[in-house]
Amino acid sequence: MSIARVTVLITALSVTGAAPAPPPFVVTYLRALGFVSSDRPGGVAGGSSLVTPSVLRLAQEELGLSPTGVLDAVTLDMFSQQRCGVSPTWLAAPSPPGRTRRFALMGSRWRPAVLTYKVSVYSLTVPKATVDRTLSTVLDHFSSSTKLKFAAAVPGDTEWNLDIRFTGDDHGCSSVFDATVLAHAFPPEFGGDLHVRDAVDFNTTSLTYVLGHELAHSLGVHHSNRADALMYPVYRDVDPLSPLLSGDDLRALQLLYGQA
After folding, report:
1. Does residue 214 carry a catalytic annotation?
2. Single pTM value for the model
3. What is the DSSP secondary-structure string of 161-195?
4. Ranges in the chain, pLDDT < 50
5. 141 is in an annotated binding site
6. Which residues, at least 6 apart from 61, have a Cβ–Cβ distance to it below 8 Å?
7. Which is catalytic among the residues 61, 62, 189, 214?
8. Residue 234 carries which DSSP code?
9. Is 78 known as a binding-site position?
10. How do residues 82-122 score in pLDDT, each as one tens digit?
11. Is 222 annotated as a binding residue?
12. In the chain, what is the straight-line distance between the N-terminal and C-terminal CA atoms, in Å?
């Protein structure tokens, strides 16, 4: 959704002079990410009253926006972008005064020197060779920057560390994918599984970025509010001439796994 279209939406909602109810997708977005309780009955209408300035400030902080608590055009536009579905509830703890929150960790890490991985369900739309090549490229970035090493599971293996699946929207997790939420992953203490929405057009959304971002979650790295970081919650295209990992990403990974 473009900022111009969002501005028209805000104008249309504000003609009465009263504070407008948030658009339905805002309530859905905030509920999906844990900013607004999903336990309250009444669907979108029931959740509208929970979209308070304090809730909006937390959601804006996660994205590195100015925490005004106002549902302005820039905030609405960012809420409509394709992003990761990992809940940003770590923002419930405020940053210390004078300190800028950047990367965060998820509270667990892997202990093996070599992590095994397997794509147990491949995409129906992206060729297997493309998935394998992209995954190998991403893992090379991680292993060249840290002490981590990766090895593909071999036929006959019954266990591996990182399980990667391309799935439908409703795929058995409490978090359901849609046109905005495209993927999520679990930290090491919960198995490190990684799920990607298979209905994504990877001609317009970078598979490298999505796999890199979610694999970092599988390794125990949470979101960063720096827009130049791989771990920024909103997906972006990858410049092939730029490093996949920003300095912020490297600091997080090396804090967990040491420097190569």
Report:
1. yes
2. 0.83
3. SEEEEEE-SS-SSSSPP-SSEEEEE--GGGT--EE
4. 5-18, 40-46, 90-101
5. no
6. 67, 91, 101, 225
7. 214
8. B
9. no
10. 999 998 764 333 333 443 446 778 888 999 889 999 999 99
11. no
12. 41
